[in-house]
User: What shape does this take?
Amino acid sequence: ATVESLSGTVEIQSDPGRFLRTIIKLPLTLAIIKALMVVADGETLAIPIQAVRENIQIERSQIKTVRQRDVIMLRNEVLPLYDLAHCLGFKPSKSEGPLPVIIVEVKGHKVGFIVEDLIGQQEIVIKSLSNILNDIQGIAGATVLGNGTIALIIDNSTLIG
Assistant: This one.
């Protein structure tokens, strides 16, 4: 018996009493990566781990403004600071208390993204978006989480202008 779907095929061959063979075929368009799972405006998002340099907690009082842009000082380095939800067109974070910030590398420079919460690191399967949706700035694809919800995968190189 063979079961086919967009994400691959599963083929089962058997000879009762002798063997059972299961063959799983995945298309080359699927890739597995490690990602840092975060929450922004209640949405779960995946940031590819190779772009993440560190995650920190900051207080709102640590946010400064330079040339009408929010920045933070991190070990004597001035880093631009963005709200990840706002960059994606979601509602910006208004939480009180310490803010989780993910430091990522974008085009050779470090920047910070404020998120609502950190979920942790996990391996995810990347599924590219259809041709209609593949030009959305800041989104590299999507993945289906274990609970069945879809999480967008961040493309940090196109997220900010």
User: Anything to note?
Assistant: The mean pLDDT is 87.
